[in-house]
Fold this sequence. Notes:
- This protein is mainly beta.
- The chain has strands at 29-32, 36-44, 49-56, 59-64, 68-82, 87-90, 95-98, 103-119.
- 0% of the residues lie in helices and 54% in strands.
- It has a domain at 46-123: Sandwich (Jelly Rolls).
- The model has no long low-confidence stretch (mean pLDDT 93).
- Strands 1, 2, 3, 4, 5, 6, 7 and 8 form an eight-stranded antiparallel beta sheet that branches.
- The chain has no helices and eight strands.
Amino acid sequence: xxxSRPALTRLGPVVADSxxxxxxxxxxxxxxxxxxxxxxxxxxxxxxxYAGVWExxxxxxRIRYTEVEYCRILSGRSRITAADGTxxxxxPGDEFxxxxxxxxxxxxxxxxxKTFVIHEAPx
Length: 123
């Protein structure tokens, strides 16, 4: 007898009007009015695992990661600046991982849309 395996989970479509836009917290906002939207297409909170699509209008805010995040830019351009001053510009097709503990700023130069996969270790 073979052990059963978990079923594949197909991610649902991203529906533009299905989420309300939000802004970064006021203490992190640096410049602009970066309205953001996130469509979480899969979540397993017990394992700290999430996947979906995120989008933001232009603006700049401080970032502090407690999670590890894989990103793939679908459209737009952004500039991510680490606390040490290292600047990384990203655009369509770019893939990268932001490690837990990363601090700096995220500046959206042109409305940016990305897919994301997040893992946050349980406390």
